[in-house]
């Protein structure tokens, strides 16, 4: 009985020690460069991103102020940075809109986002969303081919409704009052537009739905509400922006090329590996299986 009791106590002690070690280990892995801030507000800023001189690799400069962190190259607010996935969530403030009121007045606005060469619009996590009646939403993007020549990418979706009763109430964006569409990869800049089709846009649906909206946003974030169709202030409701996912690379070469770059090779940690990305040219780094931390720092991947 005493032997069994000792075994139980020993097992519990070992489990406690292992848990404490794991907690201390993962907590002690520093993600920012030495002597550099590792957070801006509540947002973690891991290297190669950084705020302050000597704390980042170009073009991953982060501006930190009272309202939060911003990606300096595009001036969009950062929500989250994911090293393992090579993703950064930001706020996209560019919502295209057009309003045509029955009193004859109208207003519109359209804008886009231009990214630096190390960031691309994620084509797996985002969708083009368009809201309105008899509305054509579009995304016009620019991407680069093998010879680095830019060529346009265009995709559209059509949203239709005749009155309030015809708007889909399932909260799915499937064409009646709201439509969505994916787009190709390797998009380095884009504009969105929204406009009613004159042949289908009449006084009936105009009085019910005078405004249309189009924007690119994180697919999992957006949930359609039928009140959006009759809204005249949807764009101002999201003045700060809507969530958007960007893919990023630490270099524009392939892994086979990057591993020959010596000290310029970004995967600095001993137990790290190079990952070729699928969304445009370039590579990123991950810690090898069984290790965790920051593969972009020397000694950054720990067992």
UniProtKB/TrEMBL annotation:
What is the membrane topology noted in the UniProt record heading this document?
A: Single-pass membrane protein
What highest taxon heads this organism's lineage? Eukaryota
Provide the Wall-associated receptor kinase galacturonan-binding domain boundaries. Answer: 36-91
Its keywords, alphabetically, are: Signal
A GO CC term attached to the entry: membrane
Q: What is its main location?
A: membrane
Where located?
Membrane
The residues the entry assigns to the signal sequence are: 1-20
Query: Pfam families recorded for this chain?
Result: GUB_WAK_bind (PF13947)
Q: Name one GO molecular function term.
A: polysaccharide binding
- What protein name does the entry list? Wall-associated receptor kinase galacturonan-binding domain-containing protein
């Amino acid at each position: 009985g005493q032997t069994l009791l000792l075994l139980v106590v020993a097992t519990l002690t070992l489990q406690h020690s292992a848990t404490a070690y794991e907690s201390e280990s993962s907590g002690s892995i520093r993600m920012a460069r030495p002597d550099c801030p590792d957070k801006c507000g509540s947002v973690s800023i891991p290297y190669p991103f950084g705020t302050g001189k000597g704390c980042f690799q170009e073009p991953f400069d982060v501006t930190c102020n009272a309202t939060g962190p911003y990606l300096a190259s595009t001036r969009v607010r950062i929500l989250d940075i994911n090293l393992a996935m090579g993703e950064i969530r930001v706020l996209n403030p560019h919502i295209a809109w057009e309003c045509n009121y029955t009193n004859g007045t109208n207003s519109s606005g359209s804008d886009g986002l231009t990214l630096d060469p190390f960031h691309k619009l994620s084509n797996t996590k985002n969708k083009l969303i368009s809201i309105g009646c008899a509305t054509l939403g579009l995304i016009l993007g620019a991407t680069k081919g093998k010879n680095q020549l830019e060529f346009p990418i265009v995709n559209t979706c059509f949203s239709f409704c005749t009155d309030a009763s015809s708007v889909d109430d399932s909260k799915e964006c499937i064409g009646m009052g709201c439509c969505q569409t994916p787009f190709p990869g390797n998009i380095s800049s884009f504009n969105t537009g929204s406009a009613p089709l004159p042949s289908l846009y009449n006084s009936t649906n105009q009085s019910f739905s005078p405004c249309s909206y189009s924007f690119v946003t994180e697919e999992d974030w957006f949930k359609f509400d039928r009140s959006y169709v009759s809204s005249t202030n949807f764009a101002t409701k999201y003045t700060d922006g809507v969530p958007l996912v960007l893919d990023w690379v630490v270099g524009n070469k392939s892994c086979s090329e990057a591993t020959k770059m010596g000290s310029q090779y970004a995967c600095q940690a001993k137990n790290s590996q190079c990952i070729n990305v699928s969304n445009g040219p370039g590579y990123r780094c991950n810690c090898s299986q069984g290790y965790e931390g920051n593969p972009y720092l020397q000694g950054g991947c720990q067992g």
